[in-house]
Amino acid sequence: MIEIPDSLRSLFTATIDEQDGTYVIEVPSSEVNHKALTVNETYRVALLDSPSSAESSPSQEPQHHASRRTTSHGSSGPPVDEGEVRDVSIETVGDQGDGIAKVERGYVVIVPDAQPGDEPTVEIEQVQENVAFASVVDGDSRSL
Prior knowledge:
Elements: E1 16-19, E2 22-25, H1 29-33, H2 52-56, E3 66-67, E4 85-87, E5 90-93, E6 99-102, E7 108-111, E8 121-127, E9 131-138
Parallel strand pairs: 7-9
Antiparallel strand pairs: 1-2, 3-4, 4-8, 5-6, 6-7, 8-9
Pfam families: TRAM (PF01938)
InterPro entries: NA-bd_OB-fold, TRAM_dom
Domain TRAM: 79-138
C-alpha cells in the first residue's frame, strides 16, 4: 500500500522527454496557476511506475476501468468529467482514510469510505487538473 504524505503538493502524470542530452518532465501550467507549485522554487519529485501497456496503447481500456459513459478526453486534460459514472478499483487508502483509484494515465480518483480491493461504481463529483473526487453510487460490486 502506498502512503501519501500530507506534504504532497501536486500529483500529475507526465512523460519524460529528452532535450539536448538532458531529460525533462513538463509540469502542467495549471499546477502553477492553482498555486500548487511556484516558479523558481525547488521541489522533491517522486516517480511512480505506470503500466507500460496503458501508456503504449491508450485506446486499450485498463482492466480496472469500465466506463458507463463515453467521453472524449484530450491527452492534456483530466480523463474524467463531472457527473460521469464509472467502475473503479480501489488500490490504496490515503492519509485521510479515503480510497484511492487510478484511471487513465494514472489519474487519481479519491473515493470516501472505500478500501483496497473494493470495486465500486462511482459518480465523479469534482474534477481538478490532477485529481478527482467521487462518491459511491453502487457498492454491490465491492469485494467482501
